[in-house]
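Handout, page 2. Input:
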Amino acid sequence: MLEKIKKYWSGKSLFSKISDVIFLLLIVALIFPEGRMAIGGTINRIKAMLVQPSIEKNRISLPDTTQSWELKALDNTVVNIQNYDGKVKFINLWATWCPPCIGEMPEIEKLYTKFKGNKNVAFFMISDENTEKIKSFIDKKNYSFPVYQSVGETPLGFRSKSIPATYILSKDNQIVIKEIGAARWGGAKTEEIINNLINE
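Output:
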């Protein structure tokens, strides 16, 4: 048996050998949950570098009930997104177990870094997981964007069957972008969209 393997291996090209090793490593990685998460995160990171967010053809006006949404920061401070009327709002629903969420987070961090000093823009990264799990994840990844948990039920206008779900709202609370799945938030296109919304 060992001789057959040696013969098979010696007859392969370098490219073919590398392909086989990568394939075997992927199989082994997929056996373990951490490996599946790492592979999923990497694939979605690549997707997030390629997929540009798309602007809604017609802006979606949010009902008054949706505009009032209580959120709790990781330091237990409670805020309401209604208090951020007059600002452009970036809202992202995510979870630590979600590979597409993890894949797009470096892009969101990039976008947040560009606008964190701008008083006309507010960021809300919202997860329904427990506080310690979220804190541990954010600390490990060294992200600086603000993270919240929903105090009550997610308002109807922001409910989604899958995550990540991202919304960019104009200053008058209209949904300009609604993106389900990982996207390239840190690129020039999103920066331009937000700057245009600031100047409306």
